[in-house]
């Protein structure tokens, strides 16, 4: 159960990130979350269930042309984009079955949970494919170039719930669309792509962008495929939508072929990110994350319109040593621009990576055409501040132009974890107290930048288990600098004595793992069968309630007992089964036979299956007190066995008391 503090922290953090985010069902029946910049919608129909789309709401505050435009095609109901889960050699399409072209040839799994809004404001959907459980999670994150929450985070959490190893792969296919333009080039590095192209992991850019005209862009789209917010795919393909729609995993890929929709005569671009199959052991999980939304370009119009893009923040760490500065140059003049050249001017704190040249030549640029260049830039160790650089563009026969843009260099996230819980359990009335008990991990980010997708897992030894309803892994979404969160679990002892170790592990996409361990002393439990009453002073005429209980019995399956009571002082008026023989509101095997003349009652019951350790109520006896004096209720005969019929050892204790007038 989450503490009140954790809930408040998570809610406040989400509100700050989402910028007035709202959740609702839209006019077409899609589940929707939206903020001031973009909206994410998920199909709730039986067909195409869980497929999603992204639209612009307010978009770029400095740019009115993008309001209300689509980023991923999905009107009125998403169906053209889909995700493939490869389990061993079988390709499954995530979500509900389809009668349309996209993913029609794939296999499908079983819905575990329909699309719903989480406490953190994400839309999640859960499906199962044999042993493999997959959670699709869609939420808002900050763009790495705009610094605003105008980007959709697309996340898949995959768990192997079986008892054998499986090979798991993932493909995300996005039917990209820029407003009304379905054939705008993908701008990757120094290339503007209008034909099929594939990038391997070592050639991936941090981000790609797409727009139609630099001087009058309707929508500037951006996909972030590498860096501290996401898990880099093994391959990135750009191709026509028809080929990717038809091929559930492999598809008709033709390098250099235009984005003409397969089988038709219309430009229709799409992309696919591939994470190749890797082994996933039993009980283990893996997460895939990519971001898609709006891109940030600082633009200055002119005869040579100039736009520059780069990350708004750069984390100074060993993993990501450089970042790209991309310049787009569009010739808006009616004549050809001659000998176009660009120059990057860096401040102290930034330097060109490797053998990068400060100046780059573009040659001649035809009227209306756009070209682009990219520099790889490295921050220096001491550069933890906001830095401004500029890009100049010149030509022999047109006016020059210049753009300045800022980048903030910050340190990496640093996760810290402390673990707290009881040092020992006590024995009270033959039972462990407290049990279950709370274990809490205090998670903190002591670094200078956000930790993305932190997960916290608890590891328990034999003898300890999670209480019913608890989850081993808890997902925090993100952790801002200096943010602290308490992550609690309810844990239960199942009867093993000794010093038991338990641990918590924390990991995130963009930082090193942390762990903590503590020990819990569990005293020895003595197996017993006994009789118990809540009555303190027992008088003639009272009604007496007596519980027949067992405590700390291992592998209990059957109980057969004959109880004797003083029939001259007590009148047994009623007996009922205990909670030991009730499971999930179902009454299990139970028999009783009362002999008032002899003052005995026989009770027999079976559980459904053996439990490791049981402490529960076998039956309840209700007496009317008739006469004063000493009285007792005892076991005349008692046999407790496991499922094979083997007798289980235990101590037994009768109930004795004095009856007053």
UniProtKB/TrEMBL annotation:
InterPro entries, per database record: CBM2/CBM3_carb-bd_dom_sf (IPR008965), Ig-like_fold (IPR013783)
The organism's place on the tree of life at top rank: Bacteria
UniProt cross-references to CDD domains, sorted A to Z: Type_II_cohesin
Keywords (A to Z) from UniProt: Signal
Signal peptide start-end: 1-23
A Gene Ontology molecular function term of the record: carbohydrate binding
Protein's name in the database: Cellulosome anchoring protein cohesin region
Organism of derivation: Acetohalobium arabaticum (strain ATCC 49924 / DSM 5501 / Z-7288)
Lineage start: Bacteria, Bacillati, Bacillota, Clostridia, Halanaerobiales
């Amino acid at each position: 159960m989450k503490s009140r503090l954790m809930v408040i922290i998570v809610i406040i953090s989400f509100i700050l990130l989402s910028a007035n985010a709202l959740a609702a069902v839209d006019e077409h029946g899609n589940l929707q979350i939206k903020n001031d910049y973009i909206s994410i919608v998920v199909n709730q129909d039986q067909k195409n269930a869980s497929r999603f789309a992204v639209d612009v709401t307010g978009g770029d505050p400095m740019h009115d042309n993008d309001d209300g435009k689509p980023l991923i095609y999905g009107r009125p109901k998403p169906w053209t984009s889909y995700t493939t889960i490869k389990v061993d050699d079988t390709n499954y399409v995530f979500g509900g079955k389809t009668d349309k072209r996209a993913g029609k040839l794939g296999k499908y799994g079983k819905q575990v949970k329909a699309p719903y809004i989480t406490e953190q404001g994400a839309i999640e959907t859960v499906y199962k494919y044999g042993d493999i459980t997959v959670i699709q999670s869609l939420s808002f994150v900050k763009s790495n170039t705009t610094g605003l929450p105008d980007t959709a985070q697309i996340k898949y959490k995959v768990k192997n719930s079986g008892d054998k190893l499986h090979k798991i792969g993932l493909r995300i296919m996005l039917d990209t669309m820029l407003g009304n333009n379905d054939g705008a080039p993908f701008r990757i590095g120094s290339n503007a792509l209008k034909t099929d192209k594939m990038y391997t992991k070592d050639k991936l850019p941090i981000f790609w962008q797409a727009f139609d005209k630099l001087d009058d862009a309707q929508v500037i789209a951006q996909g972030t495929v590498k860096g501290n917010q996401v898990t880099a795919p093994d391959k990135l393909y750009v191709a026509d939508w028809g080929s990717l729609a038809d091929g559930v995993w492999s598809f008709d890929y033709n390098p250099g072929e235009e984005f003409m929709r397969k089988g038709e005569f219309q430009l229709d671009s799409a992309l696919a990110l591939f994470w190749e199959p890797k082994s996933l052991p039993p009980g283990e999980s893996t997460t895939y994350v990519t971001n898609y939304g709006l891109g940030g370009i600082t633009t200055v119009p002119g005869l040579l319109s100039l736009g520059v893009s780069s990350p708004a923040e750069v984390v100074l760490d060993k993993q990501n040593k450089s970042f790209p500065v991309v310049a787009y140059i569009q010739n808006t003049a009616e004549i050809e621009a001659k000998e176009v050249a660009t120059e990057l001017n860096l401040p102290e704190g930034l330097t060109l990576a490797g053998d990068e040249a400060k100046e780059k030549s573009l040659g001649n640029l035809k009227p209306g055409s756009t070209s682009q260049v990219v520099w790889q830039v490295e921050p220096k160790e001491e550069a933890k501040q906001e830095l401004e650089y500029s890009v100049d563009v010149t030509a022999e026969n047109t006016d020059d132009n210049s753009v300045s843009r800022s980048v903030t260099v910050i340190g990496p996230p640093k996760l810290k974890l402390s673990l707290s819980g009881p040092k020992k359990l006590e024995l009270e009335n033959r039972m462990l107290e407290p049990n279950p008990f709370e274990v809490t991990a205090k998670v903190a980010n002591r670094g200078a930048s956000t930790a993305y997708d932190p997960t916290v897992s608890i590891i328990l030894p034999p003898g300890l288990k999670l209480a019913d309803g608890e989850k081993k892994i808890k997902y925090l979404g993100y952790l801002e600098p200096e943010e602290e969160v308490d992550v609690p679990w309810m844990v239960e002892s199942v009867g093993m004595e000794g010093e038991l170790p338990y641990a918590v592990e924390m990991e995130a996409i963009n930082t090193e793992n942390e762990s903590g361990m503590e020990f819990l002393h569990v005293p020895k439990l003595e197996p017993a069968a006994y009789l118990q009453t809540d009555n303190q002073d027992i008088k003639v005429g009272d009604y007496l309630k007596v519980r027949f209980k067992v405590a700390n019995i291992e592998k209990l399956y059957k109980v057969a007992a004959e109880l004797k009571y003083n029939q001259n002082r007590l009148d047994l008026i009623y007996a009922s089964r205990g909670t030991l023989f009730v499971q999930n509101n179902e009454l299990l095997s139970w028999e009783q036979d009362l002999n008032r003349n002899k003052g005995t009652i026989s009770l027999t019951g079976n559980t459904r299956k053996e439990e490791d350790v049981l402490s529960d109520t076998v039956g309840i006896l209700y007496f009317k007190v008739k006469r004063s004096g000493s009285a007792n209720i005892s076991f005349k005969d008692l046999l407790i066995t496991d499922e094979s019929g083997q007798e289980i050892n235990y101590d037994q204790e009768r109930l004795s008391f004095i009856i007053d007038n």
